[in-house]
Amino acid sequence: MKVLVCIKQVPDSESPIKIDNDTGWIRMDDITEFKMNRLDEFAMEEALLIKETSPGVSIDTITVGPDRSVDVIKRAIGMGADQGIHVITEFEDYQNSFQISDWIAEHAWNKNYDLILTGAMSEDNMQGQVGPMLAARLGLPCATSVISSVIAPDKNSVYVEREIESGNRDAWVLNLPAVLTVQSGINSPRYPSLSNLLRANRQELKTIRANDLALPASREDLVQIVYPQKSRAGLMLQGPQEAKATQLLEILHQRSLL
Fold first, then answer.
1. Quick check: 120 pLDDT over 90?
2. For residue 142, how many other CB atoms are within 10 A of its CB?
3. What pTM, to 2 d.p., does this model score?
4. Residues 6+ apart with CB under 8 A from 153
5. Proportion of the chain above pLDDT 90, given as a percent
């Protein structure tokens, strides 16, 4: 059984984000800390759990990004992945879901993966589109926001539970091969082991230049990104409790809430 886990390198949440007014995108050179997308860690751990319970499972991991993105592949191998694939982009500009899913699909085509896992969304763009688009390009069934998965003993299907509204779950059985986007909380991602990290540093990765792949037709334009704007300020009520209660009552009456 072959599993492919799609991972992404994202800025660390503590890194300051600065917008380049000339390009309309983030000034990536000003970001000093990057990490593996948190939800992709859950996807990787789910693949590792499948490998531990099902003999003969091999795990490939793939990322799309500039040279620095190799660090997340090494981390994935440090966690236990067998092979890493890096689709190297030559630019730091915004990469939309159409491009990323097309490039991953071009690699995955005819590779006979039985299961493809991604995080439910990335921490930076939070679009949640790469997984479903990848499934559509490969013609595979897809389940999103998966909170539980069990591979059938014959490895021909997977039982999944999806997280839906109001804390409920939606249960499905998908024939393999299939694509799953994994939600946080499905497991507890492990830390990389020293032996695997040493192996990751020695192991030769498969690299693919994005420029050598067919560029998908442009379907999305980045118009502008802006810092969040404060839409309204909070009002602090002053005085003793009775005065605050009177002020609150007046405010509620003014807004026709009482």
1. yes
2. 19
3. 0.85
4. none
5. 65
Q: What is the dihedral of CA 110, 116, 118, 120, to 10 degrees?
A: 120
- Per the rule left: phi > 0, alpha: psi between -120 and 50, beta: everything else, 49 is alpha
6-26 residues labelled b (16+ CB within 10 A) or e (exposed): bbbbbbeeeeeeeeeeeeebb
Token digits for 193? 């082991």
Residue with tokens 């006979």: 112
Contact 210, 90 (CB under 8 A): yes
pLDDT, residue 130, reads: 95
Spell out the domains of the chain, with CATH numbers in brackets.
2-212 (3.40.50.620)
Instruction: Name, in order, each residue with C-beta under 8 angstroms of 106's C-beta and a sequence gap of 6 or more.
Output: 213, 214
The answer to whether 118 touches 182, Cβ cutoff 8 Å, is yes
pLDDT of residue 125: 85
In three state form, how does the secondary structure of the chain look? CEEEEECCEEECCCCCCCEECCCCEECHHHCCCEEECHHHHHHHHHHHHHHHHCCCCEEEEEEEECHHHHHHHHHHHHHCCCEEEEEECCCCCCCCHHHHHHHHHHHHCCCCCCEEEEECCCCCCCCCCHHHHHHHHHCCCEEEEEEEEEECCCCCEEEEEEECHHHCEEEEEEECCEEEEECCCCCCCCCCCHHHHHHHHHCCCEEEEHHHCCCCCCCCCCCCCCCCCCCCCCCCCCCCHHHHHHHHHHHHHHCCCC
pLDDT at residue 13 is higher than 90 = no
Cβ-contact 12, 78 below 8 angstroms = no
Which distant-in-sequence residues (6+ apart) come within 8 Å of 24 by Cβ? 222, 223, 224, 225
